[in-house]
Automatic annotation (TrEMBL):
Coiled-coil ranges per UniProt: none
InterPro entries, A to Z: FAD-bd, FAD/NAD-bd_sf, RIFMO-like
Protein name in the entry: FAD-binding domain-containing protein
Keywords, comma-separated and alphabetical: FAD, Flavoprotein
Matches recorded under SUPFAM superfamilies: FAD/NAD(P)-binding domain
Species of provenance: Nelumbo nucifera (Sacred lotus)
GO MF entries: FAD binding; oxidoreductase activity, acting on paired donors, with incorporation or reduction of molecular oxygen, NAD(P)H as one donor, and incorporation of one atom of oxygen
Pfam (any one): FAD_binding_3
Domain FAD-binding: 2-225
UniProt keyword annotation of Chloroplast present: no
Amino acid sequence: MGHECVSIKYNDSCITVGACFVKEGKKIERNINCTILIGSDGAGSTVRKLMGIEMRGERDLQNLVSIHFFSQNLGHYLLHDRPGMLFFIFNTDAIGVLVAHDLNQGEFVLQVPFYPPQQNIKDFSFEVCKELILKLVGQNLVDIDVVDIKPWVMHAEVAEEFVSGGNRIILAGDAAHRFPPAGGFGMNTGIQDAHNLAWKIACLVKGIAPPSILRTYEMERRPIAIFNTALSVQNFKAAMSVPSALGLDPTVANKGFSCIRHRIYNLCFYAGLTVHQIINSEVGSILPSGLQRALLNGIFTIGRAQLSEYILSERNPLGSSRLVKLQRIFDEGKSLQLQFPTEDLGFRYLQGALVPDSDKVPNALKETPTGLRRNFIPSAEPGSRLPHMTVKVLQKLSNKETFSTLDLVSGNKIEFLLIVAPKKQSYDLARAAFKVAKEFKVSLKVCVIWPHRVAEKMDGSRAALIPNTNYIDVEEVWRSSSSLSWWGICQVTDRGAILVRPDEHIAWRAKSEVLGDHVLEMEKVFSLVLAIKKTRV
């Protein structure tokens, strides 16, 4: 901490990071040598800029000011009267989004629109921000403590490259992609990046795989980031449907507005232009800055009048139609969505550190996001996350403790998991997999999944897998007569097999019995997954 990255140099054997820091009032520079550099330094990534990597997508979707403050009075009120996490506030005095980080401690972040250059961040002083908070929450709060005020710009962009510098300089998190904060995609996608990258770096550091394995990080993660970018934009636009229905079209407020017809503030300006565009145009720019600001504030005041009780009332034909439209948006689920189980858990890697079912790459990620929630359907296709099923350890009939198939994946070491059924052919494959894994210097655990109750009369897999000991026998936990078996969920016969990576994603599967030489098959699989060009002697 306290160091700033100012330069990056690299050759075939080393990366040198030039860093500067302040010591006893003096600026000191030092070089840090490393073999891998991960730029997880945020949306304004210095690593990305120094490597000359461009961002592609939609820029400047909206300017906002983030106001971080504490108020236990507000937290207590919301906790007992109106509990929630996100509050979209529209009234005649102000507009903003209140994010409740901790209602018990009274910690909040308020996001308000910002329109430079007519507005300056200096306009948002601590006192002005306190007044703004009071106008928005409508409560007499006496303990507001504003701790930070920062401007920021909303973008929807993805880096052209995630991996550069000979496969050893890597971007992760917001440095690689930045989304509108609509749906939690920024944090989820960033954590997924780290999850995908960690085991691959460990393989490289431990001499299991070559540097080329890090290239699979970009192959897998960048398509997901592009998809999530489009989805977050869709969700952001869905969120904006609510103020639009109230007569406050955010696209008009941000980029200006065209004439009349249910546009923000109902003012008629030049067709196709917006308030902000007009003021920033050559015509508007000749006006004194004070007049520009007064014009902008005046128009916004008129616009917020759309929210008055006189207009937004069932007795007012215009207001009544807006309220009906608003109710329809909520009823049809077309406003902001906060849960995306399919995108958070059901995303699938199509190529990379995996073996596809066929040589033809599917077009699963070419679909256009709709912004609407989709049901999560577990899949055992290569690149998908391992499906969940509740199981318990075989031969511990008195033990009622159950766990998930996902818990079978080791969380603290590089270990692959091979899942098979208690069949002779599957045991043969497992023994071959153990042999090959040892050759590749990687740990392998075998899980034998037994059907419910059938396993009670069996002795487990010890004799079939000897001398290998890194295995576990589990049985399915009965749910209902209509529930699918493990192999039914995976759409694989019980003569098939599933190989799982250390990040819980499926590296390879056999839908039915593996024919031919099992050792050759597993050598091929591990070579492809670990990016190793292995020549069999």
